[in-house]
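User: My advisor, Dr. K., asked me to get a structural model of this assembly before our group meeting. I'm new to this, so sorry if the format is off. These are the inputs:
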Amino acid sequence: MPRNFWLQQAIWIAAALALTLALTVLVALPSGAPPFATLRILLMGGLGSMSKFGQVLTVFVPLLLCSMGLLIPFTARLWNIGIEGQIVLGAIFCTGAMMPVDQGGPAHIALALLAGMLGGALWALLAGLLKTHGRVHEIFSGLGLNFVAMGLAIWLIFGPWKRPGVASMSGTETLQPSLWLERIGSLAASWTALGLACAALALVAFLLVRTQWGLGLKAVGQNPKAARLFDLSPRLRMLQAFALCGALGGLAGAVQVLGVYHRLLPSISSGYGYTALLIGMMSGFRILPVPFICFFFAVLNVGSIQLPLQLNLDSSLSGVIQGLLVLSVFVTQGLRAYLTRRREER
Amino acid sequence: MIVLRDISKHYGRVRANDGISLTLEPGRIYALVGENGAGKSTLMRILAGHTVPDSGVIALRGEEHPGLTPAMAARLGVGMLYQDPLDFPALPVWENFRLSGPPRDRTQVVDRLGELSNHLGVCFLPDEPVAAMTVGERQLLELLRLLDLGATTLILDEPTTGITPEQKRDLFGLLSRLARQEGHTVILVTHKLSEALEMADAIFVMRQGRLEARLTPPYDSEELVRRMFGDTAAQSTDSALPEIGQSRRVTLADTVFAGPKYHLGPLNLSAAPGEIIGLAGLDGSGQELFLRGLCGLDRMAAGSLSLNNAAHARTHFKTLRRDGVHFVPADRMSQALFPDLSIRDHILLAFPEHAARLEEFHQSQCVERFDLRAHPDTPAKALSGGNQQRLLLSLIPDDAQLLLMEHPTRGLDAGSARQVWEHLRHRCAKGATLFFFSPDLDEVIEHSHRVLVFFDRALVADVPRNNASVEILGALMAGKKPEGTHAA
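Assistant: The format is fine. Below is the predicted structure of the whole assembly, which you can bring to the meeting.
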């Protein structure tokens, strides 16, 4: 039975990939892009050399942090769409905390990471409180707070934190190199960031699968009314879930500042929060597939940089392909559920 | 004439209907009785076109069909009235009435509504919102709507749940007239044997997916019970009610409970250990708020509540729960259990202190005490109604002193209901106090030391056991004051 199960699973994933391929060809043809060359460039652009692989890892880290974070509120059936803003706030808090520092060390870096987590957690709590005490749906408040966070970042960059003399979209002044995360050899990625992402994976998996707290959170998501009768404090638990997710989002923001850009940029979140939502949906909010999908999306993301260089195509095509992939997974899942139901009815 | 021939329907391994053949003649009233899960609903859904049978033939008006769609069934004159009326509470009467028929303007609809109402001796205000009507009135409106669509075969699923005895009398009178004078076929799906015995020209008994018997008058009620439940016939619990203790378990003094929509009170009453107190009232009469207020889910706006002589000026759900107050809602799936979580998870959530020896605890608590034999990994939503109730009961801590239950036997067959009551009486005999609500007055009377009657969001009477009868309680529930009772 289990062998059969895995075989089936593999067949369905293959079906989803085939459907994506077919749809990609359909989309690519009218825009004049050779579909197979496009796909090859996307993959090779991400995995073709060690330095590209390093790039992939730098994208993989925030994606994994955010998607693992999102699994926590989703266990309580909450959609923390505000993760994008929580990344930005993490970056802002991290930058703000390190502004006065001239010469840093590991302690400062740890402090900066913690500041980022705090920023993300507070921003998430805002959406959470609106949900639990203000009856505002978390999708609306999250989306609104995303815009506010973005505005806040731009205001800081052009206002109080502008570089002496120039205020531009290129961001704040660069942090002291002693505050940068150390890189792996010549690769763009850093061990610290990778370690944090893996730790987040392990922590969230343990929390959700192994602990009484995780079970309670699942119960809250299943039926908040019954959770009240079981004395599970549903509101408190929802807020905790928001805060934890926000902290991981904020950590992703801090890693972007300390490890990648070394300053605060207006687009510091790079849309990773939304991508992480897609990853969560595609995984069906199960833990096991998440790191693999994250890696795959990171490859697509980095590979897409090659599209304008080699084929004169817009790099947004990779976004289209990611979207098609998610849709294909849903279509095949729907088809599978429909077939199972029909077989059971017979 | 409707003929069902050899109808079978399987769900997985469950044979919901197993080779059922029956004939329904015009101008007759039939009762379809059976325990929960006997296959009554499936059979009626097949006749109304909502389910397609695996095999068998439905012959209607000389046409033979292997299965019907809802539209075909409606065209052939089959109309079904569901237990919860399928109407739109936000819309007024006339718009509800118009929804399913041919396109008509307001005047035409109101005229047609008036014509039908007049004919059947009922009365509706076309502009009244359906939300403001009682369940009984909404049923009548649904019935009128079906007749307007040309229904000649009327299927009524448990139509007397949630309506007063008077409304029930009116409804039955109307159904009799429809059958006797107009030649309609009426099928009454019910688990209340008294209704079947009173109304039906023939009773179909279903058991475990099969048609067990077709009984005709004169009925032998013992035979009916035996056919329904098998030879180990369901006897009502004839053990005595538990002894009432001398002390006071709970006392309300000028207590006002404030719900989201209305207030209830001031209430003054007390209950002793061992006492079982039934609550009677139509939906929304105040008994819901009474139970939710007692356990602290709804606010206590004034007065005080004493539990074991310790006064609480304010009620907190957590505190009261720790002090042994336990509330069990009627709607198990939407309010009391977690649909996708397993039995094991539920136990772990309710008794975290037993996490270390969970298997053992599950065995002793669920399997041995409550005969809950489903695998511990089964999710709650996959359990039968009876097993869901067993799970809920097994989640009540042993030291619970004040049990507040909304309809403890909702949706249970007679055998499971008996088990539930044996358990509850046992708990009360050991000193627990029980407040329970049931829409079934017979059940309330059978198990209560005294009955609190609610009407129009107020406690209107406190009736001792010797005075409680269906007539008296029914009148009080409808807002009348029969003689021989005192107001609370």
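One thing worth pointing out at the meeting: The radius of gyration of chain B is 24 Å.

User: Perfect, thanks a lot.
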